[in-house]
# Entry
Amino acid sequence: MIITNEPFLEAELSDVIRLFDGADAPELTHRTEYDGARFCNVFTLDGRETVFENEARAGGALEYKRLCKRYAKLGLYRVLSAYYGKELPWGALTGIRPTRLAYAERERGRDFVPLFRDMGVSEENIALVGRVLEGQTGIYERREGNADLFLSLPFCPSKCVYCSFITAPIAATRKYMPEYLTALERETAALPPFENLRSVYIGGGTPFALGADELERVLKAVAGVRNNDCEYTVEAGRPDVFTDEKLALCKRYGVTRICINAQSFSDRTLERIGRKHTAEQVREAFRMAKPYGFTVNCDLIAGLTGESLSEFKASVDEAIALAPENVTVHTLCLKKGSKLKEEVSALAEGELSEMIAYSRKALSAAGYEPYYLYRQKYMAGAHENVGWTKPGYASVYNIDIMEESADNPAAGANAISKKVFATEGRIERLGSPKDIPTYLGKVDELVRKKRELFGT
# Structure
């Protein structure tokens, strides 16, 4: 809990407290003062007052708010870092997109490194950001008319303990499937013609949890609006729902990429997190997909409950041996709405830093480069998620979505459409209801609002 004299700072400062898990967070008071030339931030913790002063650059109200947030967060981070006796890998940065901040500095004609150092970011993570920006060369661009299409299929064979998505075991949601697919077709058909469609992504949930005939309806809906040979991803998902029929359907409809979400190659871990498949089934999914020539992404999660450092290292080594073009290394996140969140209040960092360090070292040695990254609230150890790619296989969709550099028309429950006004420096969002029955009851309204948002 923090009390501050600037109400707009409450959420920002609470996010800094959350970086330290906040399990035994002290009571804090804060005030900020500004005289036109400098910011003065005063923190009181356990009766002790700490003062930080920072020079300010001239600017209007927006510049004042931006710098006020930055210096207040940095001051609070320093206070809490001393209180808890530890430093965090991303320092005082609380945003989910560190690379966007780096791009913003470049757009102002400045190197991002000094700012990141001032904010307490580790040298390893500063270097990681630089590598990610390099990995986006030739793909990243901010231009009016660029778009990436997303379709949501919130159906899974079972629900993992860490999952906060609206998905439920498909046995409980299949009754909605016919009406849901009709709604998805309506939403997709109502989208405007694309000036420059850069990618399509069908995500979940687990899209391959659908039957082949159901999946084909979704692929046909995309075929009706896809007007070029852009990148096309189906997040196939868990290996226990892979079939040759579904893989062949994807190939026939022009899908270029699939995701095999292993999460771990430890059978013990898979059982613990609620997966109904084995590591051998993950390997079999790779074997099944190989003849179709898809670019493949494999997901892993560092910090899964009870998983040891040696088990995680083995999973990284196994993923590398299977040679997917992309490997995404997530850090376990304690998300609201997940079973894990109900069972524990905080995640122990344990060997997590060593897991992250090993994944970076091993993937780099195997020829992978980081090309996108993002962070989340309630993430164990205040770490990050990183997408790694072999040269020439970076995902356009992942880059555009993480950097919010293109329009993102989206259809389905819990889908968030975004309209990027690049020249104005703003983004408008339109979210669909998370709950499937509620979504189905609002399809007409969503179609109308999306037409207004995208100007049709």
In short: Residues 1-86 form a domain with the Double Stranded RNA Binding Domain fold (CATH 3.30.160).
